[in-house]
Amino acid sequence: MEFAGFEPNPGSGDLPTAVKILIAGGFGAGKTTMVGAVSEISPLKTEETITATSEGVDNLSGVEEKNTTTVAMDFGRITISRDLVVYLFGTPGQNRFWFMWDELALGALGAIVLADTRRLEDSFPAVDYFEHRGTSFIVAVNRFHGTCDFNAEEVRYALDLDARVPVVMCDARSRESSKFALITLVEHTMTSQMSAVR
Question: Can you give the pTM of this predicted structure?
Answer without folding.
Answer: 0.78
